[in-house]
């Protein structure tokens, strides 16, 4: 099939970057699905991860891997979009019943598990010939308890209804045993060898319960590097939320889908299928004109430290834009703000699923992310990121000044311990 010049350029550039990845001599061995009382359905094909790169075959291997990213990205977009549809339905019912006022977390539990099941289901259905390894937040331990049987029943029904209503897959309804097995397919440890999907099925739990921002965040690691990412943000509008536009921050009818692939840029479209538009981070180089994002919940990141850095050190005049989840990465990638600061309590360990998809969405839009010490984010260490204090994200022009402001402020303020 003929290849467009833009696609060829994208693949060539990505290939150049992938060839310089550190070769591996140990094949990846993703954990197999856990056994259940009945055999797992046959359309899932599992194969052990193929052999690693060697000096003589790295170019061929990288070429094959790079060529496959388009198909993997399409599968990731399909998976995240279908999961978003399930979450939208659950959140709609949650808001109508006003259950959030009772601090009942069961709706988000159902949506969390249901989202993870759908993403795993779609990826394996769309990519049946590829080894499957998933690093995800949830496991089935709690759902196997006697008191959780009603919740498991609700999850199973919700997943089956979503698959049936979509109409893309002609399969028999999943049993509760199937659902438990699919959930546990996300127990991979990740690491520097082979390919691993990385998923947060609902990033922004409190935002979900409030009816505000949350995201289905899905990325792909190849030899420890993030090579593609998708953010489905059901409540993020297509229009800018710059300067804390309260109207824009209201619930959106369609929501946004951000997608990025190594060396191919970042694109935004609506979840109901508008044409993709290429986006770019803010080009501002004057810190005083730069607005910044931070976590909605003060417990998730130090607002006082972020405020000190932005206002005192950099002279930022705009108030912070506080929203939940990796929707911040998506908004930053299209220039709604110029800076994202995250400083969790001392002792907290960041999980890779909280940043992998957002990281590449911003990076491919021209942004840069590092820890507070200026080191690049390293997703090759397993399920956790080893960081110096926090995460800072901005454009290339602002990073030197921002990094200095962060380091100066950290010398003056001590974060509370967990």
TrEMBL record:
Is the keyword Aminoacyl-tRNA synthetase assigned to this protein?
no
Q: What is this protein called?
A: 3'(2'),5'-bisphosphate nucleotidase
User: MF terms per GO, please?
Assistant: 3'(2'),5'-bisphosphate nucleotidase activity; inositol-1,4-bisphosphate 1-phosphatase activity; metal ion binding
Q: Would the keyword Isomerase be found if you checked this record's keyword annotation?
A: no
Cofactor names from the entry are:
Mg(2+)
Q: What organism is recorded for this protein? A: Ambrosia artemisiifolia (Common ragweed)
Q: Which SUPFAM superfamilies match?
A: Carbohydrate phosphatase
Q: Part of which pathway?
A: Signal transduction; phosphatidylinositol signaling pathway
Which keywords, in A-to-Z order, does the entry hold? Hydrolase, Magnesium, Metal-binding, Multifunctional enzyme
Which catalysed reactions does the entry list for this protein? 3'-phosphoadenylyl sulfate + H2O = adenosine 5'-phosphosulfate + phosphate; adenosine 3',5'-bisphosphate + H2O = AMP + phosphate; adenosine 2',5'-bisphosphate + H2O = AMP + phosphate; 1D-myo-inositol 1,4-bisphosphate + H2O = 1D-myo-inositol 4-phosphate + phosphate
Tell me the lineage of the source organism: Eukaryota, Viridiplantae, Streptophyta, Embryophyta, Tracheophyta
- Give the protein family: Belongs to the inositol monophosphatase superfamily.
Residues given in the record as Mg(2+) binding sites = 137, 200, 202-203, 354
Q: Which domain of life is it from?
A: Eukaryota
């Amino acid at each position: 099939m003929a290849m467009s010049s833009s696609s060829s350029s994208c693949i060539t550039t990505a290939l150049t970057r992938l060839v310089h990845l550190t070769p591996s001599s140990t094949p990846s061995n993703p954990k197999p699905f856990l056994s259940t009382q009945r055999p797992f359905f046959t359309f899932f094909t599992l194969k052990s991860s193929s052999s690693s790169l060697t000096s003589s075959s790295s170019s061929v291997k990288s070429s094959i891997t790079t060529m496959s990213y388009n198909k993997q990205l399409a599968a990731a977009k399909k998976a995240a979009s279908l999961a978003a549809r399930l979450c939208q339905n659950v959140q709609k019912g949650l808001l109508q019943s006003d259950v959030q006022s009772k601090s009942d977390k069961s709706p988000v539990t159902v949506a969390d598990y249901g989202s993870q099941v759908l993403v795993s289901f779609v990826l394996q259905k769309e990519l049946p010939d590829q080894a499957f390894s998933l690093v995800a937040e949830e496991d089935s331990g709690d759902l196997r308890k006697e008191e959780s049987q009603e919740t498991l029943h609700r999850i199973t029904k919700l997943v089956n209804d979503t698959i049936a209503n979509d109409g893309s897959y002609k399969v028999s309804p999943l049993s509760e045993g199937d659902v438990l097995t699919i959930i546990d397919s996300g127990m991979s440890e990740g690491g520097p060898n082979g390919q691993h999907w990385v998923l947060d099925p609902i990033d922004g739990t409190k935002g979900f319960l409030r009816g505000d921002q949350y995201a289905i965040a899905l990325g792909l690691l190849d030899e420890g590097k993030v090579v593609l990412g998708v953010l489905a943000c059901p409540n993020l509008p297509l229009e800018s939320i710059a300067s804390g536009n309260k109207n824009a921050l209201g619930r959106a009818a369609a929501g946004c889908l951000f997608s990025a692939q190594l060396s191919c840029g970042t694109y935004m479209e609506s979840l109901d299928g508008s044409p993709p538009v290429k986006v770019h981070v803010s080009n501002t180089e004057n810190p005083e004109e730069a607005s910044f994002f931070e976590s909605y919940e003060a417990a998730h990141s130090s607002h006082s430290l972020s405020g000190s850095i932005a206002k005192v050190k950099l002279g930022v005049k705009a108030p912070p834009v506080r929203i939940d989840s990796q929707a911040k990465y998506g908004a930053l990638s299209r220039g709604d703000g110029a800076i994202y600061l995250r400083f969790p309590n001392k002792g907290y360990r960041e999980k890779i699923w909280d940043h992998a998809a957002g990281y590449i969405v911003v990076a491919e839009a021209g942004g840069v992310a590092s820890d507070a010490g200026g080191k690049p984010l390293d997703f090759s260490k397993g399920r956790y990121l080893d960081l110096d204090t926090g995460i800072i994200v901005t454009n290339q022009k602002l990073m030197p000044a921002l990094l200095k402001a962060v380091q100066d402020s950290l010398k003056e303020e001590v974060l509370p311990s967990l």
